[in-house]
């Protein structure tokens, strides 16, 4: 049995989930050799536990790469703005990479990572874990086989709630730029990025260039008092004419499993983060599939190991995420900024000491928008701003929000 030697950069925050996944596979598929954390005091208990069993600890990731050249891959779970430079550095030093999402937030950065991957002939998988569930994998197979026919439209809806502490958890939460570096933190690039990425993977799976954004019209808002966005509606027309819609908010009154609806020539399909799908065919037949409970993070590590040692297809190779980054950049360009929702349309709620910001009627607004494939301003929602389509043909540089 092949066991991959792994180094983990970042063990706190989301890095703790990576560490948990590695430890579930320790001795079975992976062998954790080294970890990186900039603060020993903050992570003392975890670091001491790991070093007691022989794992090497470093404060600088470059020292780890220099001293562990035999690693089969490194996992990078660091702040968003460090993803691109660290992935590029690791691959240039000869390492394969499992990179936390988003791989980058600007088209110039994702292109630089892709170029490095090609130049170094390294492997780079992106940890969009919602690509790994059995239901999503089976749905993609059905699409490849043509069971749904040509796809006409894809609609994604994500409605969650986040309290004020969510935006105080680190220095970049809810920010557009930190220390001169883009983070563009919000529903599009962070918590609900999986939804948009999966939509575009569905489109690309259906036909070549089906997931390549060509024109984007978007409205980006915030209810919370932050720089970035917490609510968005996006219309994407892809290179082959597929319409992709993305509706998101972190100002909903409850947590709902995000879902995707597909309209195609032969069927309508409904997939949800709950690892299930339902397909209704035009001949009247229907099919449902439940993937059950899975650890999607562990799945991504298994997939990486099986790709390296057995040649199994990656669930989310770096190159396919370029469509996601391009769509994100197009959304910001079209919106022209992030617009605050006036207080009169918000409700602040104290729930067991946690402060939540809700947008009044946002659930119903998104339901209507998704059903009719409209942007919020096209429905006459009073707090909205009408925006213009943005053409992404030959687009290669994002430079908003910098003076």
Automatic annotation (TrEMBL):
It comes from the Bacteria. InterPro entries: Gfo/Idh/MocA-like_OxRdtase_N, Gfo/Idh/MocA_oxidrdct_glycsds, NAD(P)-bd_dom_sf. SUPFAM superfamilies: Glyceraldehyde-3-phosphate dehydrogenase-like, C-terminal domain (SSF55347), NAD(P)-binding Rossmann-fold domains (SSF51735). It holds the Pfam family GFO_IDH_MocA. Keywords: Oxidoreductase. The keyword Nucleotide-binding does not apply. Residues 5-128 form the Gfo/Idh/MocA-like oxidoreductase N-terminal domain. This is Gfo/Idh/MocA family oxidoreductase. It comes from Anaerocellum danielii.
């Amino acid at each position: 049995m092949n066991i991959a030697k792994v180094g983990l950069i970042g063990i706190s925050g989301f890095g703790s989930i990576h560490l948990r996944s590695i430890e579930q596979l320790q001795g079975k598929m992976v062998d954790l050799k080294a970890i990186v954390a900039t603060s020993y005091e903050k992570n003392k208990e975890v670091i001491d536990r790991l070093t007691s069993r022989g794992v090497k600890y470093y404060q600088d990731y470059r020292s780890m790469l220099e001293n562990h050249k035999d690693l089969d891959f490194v996992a990078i779970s660091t702040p968003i703005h460090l993803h691109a430079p660290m992935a590029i550095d690791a691959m240039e030093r000869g390492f394969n990479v499992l990179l936390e999402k988003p791989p980058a937030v600007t088209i110039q950065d994702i292109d630089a990572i892709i170029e490095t991957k090609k130049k170094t002939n390294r492997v780079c998988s992106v940890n969009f874990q919602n690509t790994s569930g059995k239901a999503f994998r089976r749905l993609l197979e059905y699409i490849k086989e043509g069971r749904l026919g040509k796809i006409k439209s894809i609609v994604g809806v994500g409605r969650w709630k986040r309290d004020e502490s969510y935006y105080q958890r680190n220095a970049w939460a809810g920010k557009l730029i930190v220390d001169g570096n883009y983070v563009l933190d919000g529903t599009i690039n962070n918590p609900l990025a999986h939804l948009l990425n999966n939509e575009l993977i569905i489109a690309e799976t259906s036909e070549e260039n089906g997931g390549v954004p060509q024109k984007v019209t978007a409205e980006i808002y915030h209810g919370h008092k932050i720089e970035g966005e917490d609510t968005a509606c996006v219309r994407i027309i892809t290179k082959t004419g597929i319409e992709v819609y993305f509706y998101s908010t972190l100002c909903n009154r409850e947590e709902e499993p995000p879902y995707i609806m597909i309209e195609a020539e032969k069927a309508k399909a409904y997939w949800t983060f709950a690892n299930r799908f339902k397909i209704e065919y035009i001949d009247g037949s229907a099919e449902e599939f439940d993937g059950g409970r899975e650890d999607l993070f562990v799945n991504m590590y298994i997939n990486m190991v099986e790709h390296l040692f057995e040649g199994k297809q990656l669930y989310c190779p770096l190159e396919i995420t370029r469509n996601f980054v391009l769509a994100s950049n197009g959304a910001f360009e079209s919106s022209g900024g992030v617009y605050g929702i006036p207080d009169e349309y918000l409700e602040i709620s104290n729930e067991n000491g946690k402060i939540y910001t809700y947008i009044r009627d946002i659930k119903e607004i998104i339901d209507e928008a998704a059903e009719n494939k409209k942007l919020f301003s096209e429905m006459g929602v009073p707090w909205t701003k009408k925006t213009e389509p943005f053409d992404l043909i030959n687009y290669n540089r994002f430079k908003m929000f910098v003076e």
